[in-house]
Specification:
single chain; 170 residues; alpha/beta; Uracil-DNA Glycosylase, subunit E; five-stranded mixed β-sheet; 6 helices; DNA damage; EC 3.2.2.28; DNA repair
Length: 170
């Protein structure tokens, strides 16, 4: 299975960063394609999109100022299958991507993604005090995976901070 294509360009409002593609994403070539993943529902409920997008429309997020990438490229059944070496390589690649494209905000879709990226253990939800890449805001949100035990309303409330943050930056 091949890695899926990033959807990224310079000066995005938000670059969403996941752990890695699911097997379903690897099969379809689209981000957050697993039918149990709530990413597209969360974006709509949080006010980031006016409607619920389908994974096949993932590239259209660029038109809204949003991008998509992952810390690890290899599709797996779950994040537990990702090796330390893959995380180490992925975080360096991700730092270079962020420094090059300079999104206003990088939203890490899962606390574990940010922990791997930053090397920090104790990470709060939302806006982080110090960015890893200077000039870019780090924001930590819950994973959109259907395996996450948080209620959808609780998850959405955290993502709802993003449109407000974008508004203050413009």
């Amino acid at each position: 299975m091949k890695p899926i294509k990033d959807h990224v360009k310079e000066n995005l409002d938000i670059l969403f960063v996941g752990f890695n593609p699911s097997l379903r994403s690897g099969e379809t070539g689209h981000h957050f394609a697993n039918p149990h993943n709530r990413f597209w529902t969360i974006l709509q409920r949080a006010g980031l999109t006016k409607r619920k997008f389908h994974p096949t429309e993932d590239a259209q997020l660029l038109d809204l100022g949003y991008g998509l990438t992952n810390i690890v490229e290899r599709p797996t059944k779950n994040a537990q299958e990702i090796t330390k070496e893959e995380y180490d390589k992925g975080k360096e690649t991700l730092k270079k991507k962020i420094a090059f494209y300079q999104p206003r905000i990088v939203c890490f879709v899962g606390k574990g993604v940010y922990q791997q990226y930053s090397g920090q253990k104790d990470v709060p939800w939302g806006l982080q005090e110090k960015a890893i890449v200077p000039g870019v805001i780090d924001f930590v949100a819950p994973s959109s995976s259907g395996l996450v035990r948080m209620k959808l309303d609780e998850i959405t409330a955290i993502y709802r901070e993003l449109p407000e943050l974008i508004h203050t930056l413009k």
